[in-house]
Amino acid sequence: MRFHTSAQRAVAIALLAAACGACAPADNGPRRYRMQGEITYDGQPLPAGRISFAPDTEQGNSGPGGYADIVDGYYDTNNNGKGVVPGPHNVRIEGYDGQPSPKNDFYRYGTMVFRVHREQIEVPEKASTHNFDVPNPPNEK
Predict the structure, then answer these.
(1) What pLDDT does residue 57 have?
(2) Phi/psi of residue 62, each to 5°?
(3) Distance CA 128, CA 15 (A)
(4) CA nearest 74: which of 27, 126, 130, 5?
(5) pTM score of the predicted model
(6) Is the domain 35-134 a CATH 2.60.40 member?
């Protein structure tokens, strides 16, 4: 195809972009909801870590998982741009001291305080707050 003017090129590009946009899915997967809250360990805010939410398939839930970094005892799944699908979930929390060192620079979270804590929760069909109090020792299932 040969264009004679820049206006013709611009119209052709606009039409092509509109056509490609119509091919994209209208919905980008299942509805996700914001989860946020506080995480304490041994009665104190957990300095750093990661929390992940995996739909409990044994209870019939499915969909993508969600996660968030833990900073100064707080997490928010909106910080990574994703939320959590509703329903039963298996939650996994990793805890760190928040002090990266040359010896352990692979983890930006610092030295591991506890390996993993697991529990199950029900995520509602709305944005919500869920606080976690990790026992010492944590539930490592």
Answers:
(1) 95
(2) -150, 170
(3) 42
(4) 130
(5) 0.75
(6) yes
Cβ atoms of 62 and 105 closer than 8 Å? no
**Residue whose C-alpha is closest to residue 50's, from 25, 77, 14, 85:** 77
Q: What is the pLDDT of residue 20?
A: 44
Tokens 């499915």 sit at which residue?
62
Residue for token pair 């506890």: 114
Strand, helix or coil for residue 6: helix
Which helix (H) or strand (E) element contains residue 116? strand 112-123
pLDDT in tens, the chain (141 residues): 454 566 665 555 554 444 444 443 335 688 999 999 999 999 999 999 999 999 999 999 999 999 999 999 999 999 876 899 999 999 999 999 998 776 655 567 888 899 899 999 999 999 999 999 999 887 765
Domain segments of the chain as ranges:
35-134
C-alpha span between 136 and 110 (Å, rounded): 19
SS (H, E, C) 77-90: HHHHCCCECCEEEE
- Residue 65 CA to residue 33 CA, distance in Å, equals 11
- Torsions phi, psi of 133, nearest 5? -120, 100
